[in-house]
Amino acid sequence: MIRMQVRRYALVPVLGTAIFGACLQSQILQKRPPAAPPATPALVQQPQDVKPVAPVLPAGTSLQVEAAQHYPMKAGEAIEARLLHPIYADGKLVVPEGTMLHGKVVALQPDRKMRWAGRIRGDFTPFHIPQVQFTDLVLPEGSLPLSAAKVTNGAPVLHLTAPGIKPKQSLFSREWAQAKARVRDQLSFFTAPGLGDRARRLLYSQLPYHAERIQAHTAWSFELTSPLKLPVVEQATADPPSPPSRPGNPETWSVHALLLRDLTSANAKAGDPVQALVVEPVYDKEKQLVVPEGATLIGKVSAARPARSFGRNGKLRFTFQEVHFPEGFQREVQGSLAGAATEKSQDLSLDAEGTISPRNQASAIAPLLLTMLAGHALDQDGNMTLQTGVASNGFGLIGRFVGIAAGSRPIAAGIGFYAAGLSVYDNFLHSGRDVVFPKDTRIEIDTTPLRAPVLKPEGQ
Q1: Are 333 and 322 in contact (CB under 8 A)?
Q2: Could you give the domains of the chain?
Q3: pLDDT tens, residue by residue, 359-401
Q4: pTM
Q5: DSSP letters of 270-302?
Q6: Calpha distance 131→107 (Å, rounded)
Q7: In whole angstroms, what is the distance from residue 333 CA to residue 338 CA?
Q8: Residue among 294, 234, 328, 299 nearest 452 (CA)
Q9: For residue 281, what are the contacts with CB-CB under 8 A and spacing of at least 6?
Q10: Distance between CA atoms of residues 105 and 116, nearest Å
């Protein structure tokens, strides 16, 4: 009896399996219903569009601008200037080169150095240095107010470019080349555009008093004192610029940077550290970012000599050995100075090795000519009025007027010898000039992948 019950219960799983198999087979033989159509795009929930973030220029951002025209030297005068270099933020161009800025002259400061130099030459104009503050950035969307520091560093800018490597020359060849360059510079006074304006300025320099002005192409460098939020502009993404190619060197990386502190040959020593902030991203020939904007170049002074007496000028050379990326890592480089923007009055030159030095302006012609003209007034033959007028060169129009009005050959000759003495001092006796690179001086560093293949960050 018990065995029959066990067998009965054992048949239950077998019957269940048979029934499940029959049902499964019947489903397979039946025609399956069509699959449900896929969801249409309208029914799919799309993520919300991410709004672009407005770029922000942080406080301390340096801007270099240049006056578009001449302006009177007076407080309250409105000034319009254009941006000399583009501005990047997070690797993107946010303010293009040539963007206009509005500002004004907020105050006038006495220029004692110019006043002293003018008075010993018969010019009693009370020279001033304008203090300028820029207040608006003119964008296509309208003027954008900005907060900037007041600056007094306005001066015409000279753009230095390193020449190609030249063969070694003898001392005579170098002196002859410098003499020809000085002659070309003097002839450019008559041949370059703007002769009328230069002639008028030369005449003003002979007057005992004349009006002042801010020269066209005067440049200022200033920093933002508070962050500047720029508007969001939808622009087509342009291809990054390709590095320039040069003969014998298929690819050259030009790194544009700003010096982070003052640098001058007056106190620089070999081995002193030099730092510069990269202000434009650098791309290789494959359009890959290799040096981002915001990286820091680390280098040192390789040669320096201060100016000395008897017109001996100083010199300065510095190179870069490392680049520190914003992400925190660093790589070795070999970079030399290929260009810089400096005050035009310094009259600097840059050689192929990256050495900066003032041009030699000494000339024996001017002192000899002035001495001969001064001595000509002592000749007893000839027209005394003409001779005294030609000889009295040392005190501008005042000197000529006194020399002619006095009717005295010795007085006219004395004024002429005074001019010759000033010329001798300016050319041979005074101390030479130093190389001065203020903070935020814009420089260009050349390096190549062959010399510095590790500039490219890891993972790219």
Answers
A1: yes
A2: 56-165+210-229 (2.40.128), 253-361+433-455 (2.40.128), 365-429 (no CATH)
A3: 877 777 778 888 888 777 777 776 777 777 777 777 777 877 8
A4: 0.76
A5: TT-EEEEEE-S-EE-TTS-EEE-TT-EEEEEEE
A6: 5
A7: 15
A8: 299
A9: 88, 91, 240, 289, 291, 292, 293
A10: 24
Task: Write out the two tokens for 440.
Answer: 């935020």
Instruction: List pLDDT tens digits, range 235-246.
Output: 544 555 555 555
| Dist CA 155 CA 111 (whole Å) | 13
> Which residues lie across from 343 on neighbouring strands?
157
Residue type, 297: L
Confirm if 133 and 101 have CB atoms less than 8 A apart: no
Around Cβ 339, how many Cβ atoms within 10 Å?
Answer: 16
Question: What sign for the dihedral angle of Cα 259, 265, 271, 272?
Answer: negative
Average pLDDT, the chain: 79
The mean per-residue pLDDT over the stretch 414-437 comes to 87
Q: What is the DSSP string of 68-103?
A: SS-EES-TT-EEEEEESS-EEETTEEEE-TT-EEEE
Tokens representing residue 347 in the block: 């009259």
DSSP 173-212: HHHHHHHHHHHHHHHHHHHSS-HHHHHHHHHHHHSSS---
**Tokens linked to 299:** 């280098």
Q: What is the dihedral of CA 255, 261, 264, 269, to 10 degrees?
A: -90
Query: How deeply is 298 buried, as exposed, middle or buried, from its count of CB atoms within 10 A (0-12, 13-18, 19+)?
Result: middle
Residue 216 contacts residue 68 (beta carbons within 8 Å): yes
Q: Given CA atoms 316, 319, 325, 330 in this order, what sign does their dihedral have?
A: negative
Q: CA–CA separation, 376 vs 387, rounded Å?
A: 7
For 198-236, give one letter per residue: b (16+ CB within 10 A) or e: eeeeeeeebeeebebbbbeebbbbbebeeebebeeeeee
For residue 160, the one-letter residue type is: L
In terms of C-beta distances under 8 Å and separation of at least 24 residues, what long-range contacts does 188-192 make, across chains too? none
| Closest residue by Cα to residue 137 from 76, 240, 61 | 61
* More confident: 345 or 376: 345
CA distances from 152 to 61, 107, 130, 442, 458 (A): 18, 10, 6, 18, 43
Strand partners, 296: 277, 324
